[in-house]
Design brief:
The protein is an alpha/beta fold. The protein has 32 helices and 28 strands. The longest helix has 47 residues.
Length: 940
């Protein structure tokens, strides 16, 4: 009876399959969980019962050697290249992510390096705004794809970020994410059987968290889907808040169990509450934190990394230009002073009985809208009057008359009386400011209130005499498609937009820096976190010009207004100081949510705090120790720099693709031409190729015509990305020339084609003149040793050298290629091999396989000696954590039934993780060996 094991290759139903898992039933038979290897079933999963199927185990000793008669051994070279490129890195070094189309900074490699050194790649990347978290996620995803751990990917983000994230992943890493908006999901479901899971239709997708959370049907589908990698962008939105679990949090907890790898991204990763931050850590690793109110940096080591600009400034010389900050002081007009005086004297009955615990006073929120614009304040007044008039008559409460008086004063403020608006107009026209409305010099104007946004957009169009499409608005009231279109157009030279008036929906994550380095805060946020988010839209990685940031400040004679504005001004000053000195401005207020920060400022205003006293409060906050900051700064072991490895096969990416297409064109129609102006090529997309690419790529990345243009010139491709943002509106906003590197999806098609150059059970036999002696034979062998989950822990290519039929030594691939000269594309094929040579080489196969096993046994022993102490350490750590989890859980309940129930849940959790760790780190001494080619010395 065959002893089946994970990693074993089998022939079932005339296709080749790799065994992933073996389960024995009560009858002593096996169920083989397999994944397809041969082209027809590649990557498909199936279960076969050994008592019902005819199963043949692939035996490397039975390989048939086929003499290669092709010119310069091109057939063998392409066959070997197609297989060698599929070798899986089994170490923790970086093999591909550092080669993406980006201006790489060393710190951006660290999250991937930290993750690869852990059994499971689960991490929160919490770098501050503008350092490139999306790119850091792409580096880690690329490394996992290279390791065979990234076939299925799900990215969850906010709707305004979907297109931006999708394009970054494709343009820089050629990771093809299909955008699943509501319409796309509806279309998929319309053409599939009702019981089919729409999340299984595409392997790599990006979806809005708002789309997922609002459809109860999706939960069932998500529970039945599994991904290799799940990425959650803006992860602060899925943290638990108090005892309440929002829909987003429940959704994230569900997804956390649907993938081995999870990557979270957030520039604002916590709200200052230990329990809230612990909820994110427990999504990444449910065993990490026993007591969510009490944990240390050691509990979350390796689960998160957080850096500020000050931490990486030595690595990014010239990449972050120092901001220009300027306060635009706006002297209040006479009509504004009237409104300010009325407001300052106004006392509202509705606020008298309100306690501090009930939040902001209405008068304070009214002041916030007043500081935004008269239009915003009138909107707030109207909304409150409608409520009051439903409860009281006009004479019952003084508040109605007071609010109407203020409203009347505000209605008298014309655009010419609105001092900040007039100052904005003056600034935009000021020669010293230097804004000319050029295509590469656009302006972002932020305001909190929608009414202010609408007012500014309408007035600016008229007073600057600009067409409607030159001044665009963006707010959360728009659909995801509308938001994405506006953001894309803002970064495209040919688009007419010159000014973007944005509500704070645009302050999260969006890249607005491509054609803009100017930002104007028309109203001033009462939150340092909002400052950070807004400014980060233009002051970020990739900005080419010095960021110019202006704050529009009200100057009033009214003492109350003057005092309150002084508090707001202090926020501006302190935010800039904190950015340079401590990295995180949120530390100053000691609060870690926008709402809580606004309440601190509101409290200072409502209590009539002196500005100097408020400043001292911030100064004392700056010196305070923030436990969360300490945890995250120390949680990642970045003492060692990331280790980068350059893998070499026979050919470069460009040479391999060109040679493969040229060779295939001899028997099939696959024309290819080299590009004239840059390194790269133009490939005609045949129906077969289009069919494969259509299954892999989003529609936007598919070549529009019959040609696919690719270049391995990274700088050129980065320029193409920039130009693609500036195309004519009628054209696609995706690059016409795609980045040619090892991870491009076209290589999966080419590798499959190359793998068919020799049949199943065949290997090429080549005669090497000059470099090899006639009595010499070398076997090129690949061998892998899997873990219990069938993931290779050893994956090696090597040579076995024989002379006169006797084994001499093993060779690394570099030694083998140097000895044979087989990297050359000009080795003459003298066709000197005979059937006698074939028979002699095949006679050595059993001995070669035995020597291959001995060679791989060295790797097995080395892995065992290295990993056993680490495995013991990991299991000991889990045992200790299990004790802590039980102690904490049992302390929460008095009922014995409840205690027993919680203890059982903890047992199940740790049994699951212990099994996973053991199966993942334990090697199976059952190597899979393939004879890839045989070389023999010949005379010309």
């Amino acid at each position: 009876m065959v002893d089946y094991a994970p990693g074993m290759r089998t022939i079932i139903r005339d296709e080749e399959w790799m065994v992933k898992k073996v389960e024995k039933n009560n009858m002593g038979n096996n169920a083989l969980y397999c994944v397809g290897v041969s082209p027809l079933v590649k990557d498909k999963e199936a279960v076969f019962l050994t008592d019902l199927e005819e199963i043949a185990v692939v035996d490397p000793k039975d390989v048939k050697l086929v003499i290669d008669g092709s010119s310069f051994f091109r057939r063998t070279q392409l066959y070997l290249e197609s297989q060698w490129r599929q070798q899986i890195p089994t170490d923790t070094d970086l093999h591909i992510g550092d080669k993406a189309a980006m201006d790489l900074m060393p710190y951006q490699l660290e999250p991937a390096q930290i993750s690869l050194r852990r059994p499971r790649q689960r991490i929160l990347i919490a770098d501050t705004v503008g350092l490139g978290k999306t790119l850091e996620a792409g580096i880690l995803m690329s490394e996992l794809i290279a390791r065979g751990k990234g076939r299925r990917i799900l990215v969850v983000t906010v709707k305004s970020m979907m297109t931006q994230f999708q394009k970054e992943m494709w343009n820089r890493f050629t990771i093809p994410l299909v955008r699943l908006d509501s319409k796309k999901i509806h279309d998929i479901r319309a053409k599939l059987p009702s019981n089919y899971n729409p999340f299984s239709y595409y392997d790599k997708t990006i979806v809005s968290i708002d789309t997922l959370k609002r459809d109860v049907e999706y939960r069932t589908h998500l529970e039945k889907a599994y991904w290799d990698i799940i990425v959650i962008d803006e992860a602060q939105n899925v943290a638990e808040r108090g005892d309440h679990q929002a829909q987003r949090s429940r959704l994230a907890k569900l997804l956390a169990d649907r993938s081995d790898t999870m990557i979270m991204l957030s520039a604002t990763p916590h709200d200052g509450r230990a329990k809230s931050f612990a909820s994110l850590m427990n999504m990444l690793d449910p065993t990490a934190i026993a007591n969510p109110d009490d944990y240390t940096k050691d509990d979350i080591k390796g689960l998160c990394v957080r850096r500020f600009k000050k931490d990486v400034k030595d690595q990014v010389s010239g990449s972050f230009l120092e901001r220009r900050i300027e306060l635009q002081r706006c002297k209040a007009s006479a009509k504004e002073e009237i409104a300010f005086d009325i407001f300052a004297e106004m006392q509202l009955q509705m606020d008298l009985s309100k306690t501090r615990a009930q939040g902001q006073l209405f008068k304070t929120s009214l002041e916030k809208s007043l500081f935004s614009s008269p239009a915003a304040c009138i909107k707030s007044i109207d909304a409150r009057l409608n409520k009051l008039r439903k409860k009281y008559s006009d004479n019952e409460i003084k508040d109605i008359r007071a609010l109407e008086e203020l409203k009347s004063a505000l209605e008298n403020i014309t655009p010419s009386d609105f001092s900040r608006y007039q100052q904005l107009l003056t600034l935009l026209k000021d020669k010293e400011y230097g804004w000319t409305g050029a295509t590469d010099d656009r302006v972002v104007i932020f305001t909190e209130r929608i009414e202010t946004m609408k007012y500014l957009a309408a007035r600016l169009r008229e007073d600057l005499k600009m067409p409607a499409n030159a001044i665009q608005e963006i707010s959360g009231a728009m659909s995801d498609a509308e938001q994405q279109t506006i953001v894309e157009n803002f970064g495209r030279e040919e688009a007419p937009v010159r000014v973007l008036v944005a509500s704070d929906v645009a302050s999260e994550g969006l890249n607005l820096h491509y054609l803009s380095h100017r930002m104007i805060h028309f109203d001033i946020p009462w939150s340092l976190m909002v400052f950070q988010q807004r400014n980060g839209r233009i002051d970020r990685y990739g900005q080419q010009k010095r960021p110019d940031i202006r704050y529009m400040m009200i100057e009033s004679n009214n003492p109350r207004i003057k005092g309150d504005m002084r508090i707001i001004e202090i926020l501006i000053t302190k935010e800039e100081q904190a950015l340079k000195n401590i990295g995180d401005p949120a530390l100053l207020l000691g609060k870690f949510s926008i709402e809580d920060e606004e309440l601190v400022v509101s409290d200072a205003i409502e209590n009539g705090s002196d500005a100097d006293a408020f400043s001292e409060t911030l100064d004392s906050g700056e010196a305070e120790f923030d436990p969360f900051e300490a945890l995250m700064a120390a949680s990642a072991d970045t003492s060692e720099p990331a280790k980068v490895k350059n893998d070499e096969t026979l050919f470069s990416d460009a040479d391999y693709l060109y040679l493969a297409m040229s060779y295939l064109n001899q028997s099939e129609s696959h024309p290819v031409e080299k590009l004239q102006s840059v390194s790269g090529m133009e490939v005609i997309v045949t129906p077969d190729m289009r069919k494969r690419l259509t299954a892999l790529l989003p529609d936007e990345a598919m070549p529009q015509g019959d040609y696919l243009r690719l270049s391995d010139d990274k700088e050129f491709c980065m320029g193409e990305m920039k130009r693609s943002m500036q195309n004519n509106m009628a054209e696609t906003a995706w690059p016409k020339v795609q980045y040619l590197w090892k991870q491009h999806p076209l290589f999966t098609w080419v590798n499959d084609k190359g793998g068919l150059l020799y049949g199943r059970g065949e290997a090429p036999f080549v005669g090497i003149p000059d470099k090899m002696k006639p009595e010499e034979t070398i076997f090129i062998v690949t061998g892998s040793i899997p873990n219990k989950r069938s993931t290779p822990l050893v994956d090696e290519w090597f040579g076995l050298q024989y002379e006169n039929g006797r084994f001499v030594k093993s060779l690394s691939m570099n030694e083998l290629l140097a000895h044979t000269g087989f990297r050359s594309t000009k080795i003459p094929n003298s066709a000197s091999l005979t059937e006698t040579d074939v028979a002699e080489a095949e006679g050595l196969l059993p001995d070669a396989v035995e020597h291959a096993k001995k060679y791989l046994d060295g790797y097995y022993q080395s892995y065992q000696s290295h990993i056993n102490p680490l495995l013991d350490e990991e299991l000991d750590k889990l045992a200790e954590l299990e004790t802590r989890h039980k102690y904490y859980q049992l302390s929460l309940f008095e009922s014995e039934r409840k205690k027993s129930e919680q203890e059982r849940m903890v047992d199940e959790l740790f049994d699951k993780f212990t099994t996973w760790v053991t199966d993942t780190m334990s090697i199976q001494n059952n190597p899979y060996i393939r004879i890839m080619a045989v070389m023999k010395g010949v005379t010309r």
